Amino acid sequence: MVTPKSAHFFHKLLKKGRILISQLSIQVLLLKYDMDTFLLPVLPIPNVVFFAHTSLPVYIIEPIYVQMIKDCISENRSIAISKAQAYDHLSTQGRFKPSIICGMGKPVILEEAPDGSLKVLIKGTGRVKLLSIEQNLPYLIYKAEIYTDKKESEHFYGPQIENLKNLLDNWLELNVTDSFERESFSRSLITIYHVVDYICMFLVHDADLRQLLLENNSMFERIQLLSSLFEDPNQFEERSIVVNAIKHYEEIENTSRIAH
Predict the structure, then answer these.
(1) In this structure, are residues 67 and 139 in contact, taking their beta carbons and an 8 Å threshold?
(2) Strands (E) located in the chain
(3) Is 87 left (phi over 0), alpha (psi -120 to 50) or beta?
(4) Rounded to whole angstroms, how far apart are CA atoms 48 and 59?
(5) 24 φ, ψ to 5°?
(6) Domains in the chain, start-ordered, CATH in brackets?
(7) SS3 245
């Protein structure tokens, strides 16, 4: 038998239950937010653009960055390698800030010298967008999120893909003289993403253009751009007229975005 007193108790319990469920929902949302964003140590390097499907050798001399690498390894964390940009303000001359879009990867120490410097290989795992600074000292840590390509209906095949594969094969033949190393590297080129990223890394000499290619979130467009830059599979330097046109177009796009 449910008395008025017990009914009042159940009403309070139900109300409290709704509060608990509501609090749980908030916690789930916060957990999802934390899963979508993460803390990431960032190493800005002038003129270096790191692509997700590549591996980057880095020589670390400064003790702060040596500690950063060792911290990342001990904590099983990734590290972002970002193209360094100079600050515009006079008060910060000589200092650098990271580009917002950059590559991240897992560091592996190949060799530690007696003076403490490190030879490190960064194995690419993804591309990120840096959101906000969470730590300045002793080294940069940013809140970041994964930066993915947009979904596209185009299928990546045809003569343009074959030309890019041939371009990279020809470049390897010329620059990697050891046949075993060359074949081993070629076997690691599993997808068109690996081919495109390594062409961007090895053959595109203009650092600002490499950054534009990294920031582009359409594989179809990146293939078109590289095909315009390298018309011949034996051409190992981008066409300057196309580089200037791409950069000029990007400036117009940026101006248009700012104006709106």
Answers:
(1) yes
(2) 37-45, 55-60, 79-86, 96-98, 101-112, 118-135, 141-146
(3) beta
(4) 13
(5) -65, -40
(6) 37-146 (2.30.130.40), 159-259 (no CATH)
(7) helix
Helical packing angle, 207-215 and 240-259, nearest 10°: 50
Question: CA of 223: how far to CAs of 104, 170, 212, 228, 241, in Å?
Answer: 22, 18, 13, 9, 18
> d(Cα 116, Cα 169) in Å, to the nearest integer?
37
Q: Which long-range contacts (CB under 8 A, 24 or more apart) does 215-221 make?
A: 215/101, 217/147, 217/148, 217/149, 217/150, 218/149, 218/150, 218/152, 219/149, 219/152, 219/156, 219/192, 219/193, 220/152, 220/154, 220/156
Residue given tokens 């560091």 in the structure block? 107
Q: Tell me how far apart the alpha carbons of residues 207 and 213 are, in angstroms, rounded to a whole number.
A: 10
* Residue with token string 């046949």: 179
Sign of the C-alpha dihedral computed for residues 123, 149, 198 and 205 taken in this order: negative
Residue position matching structure tokens 């899963």 = 35
CA 257, CA 260: separation in Å to the nearest integer? 5
> In a structure prediction context, what are the per-residue pLDDT tens digits for the chain, which is 260 residues long?
444 444 444 344 445 444 343 444 434 333 444 568 999 999 999 999 999 999 999 999 999 999 999 999 999 999 999 999 987 654 445 568 999 999 999 999 999 999 999 999 999 999 999 999 999 999 999 999 999 999 987 677 688 999 999 999 999 999 999 999 999 999 999 999 999 999 999 999 999 999 999 999 999 999 999 999 999 999 998 999 999 998 888 877 766 665 55
* DSSP one-letter code for 89: S
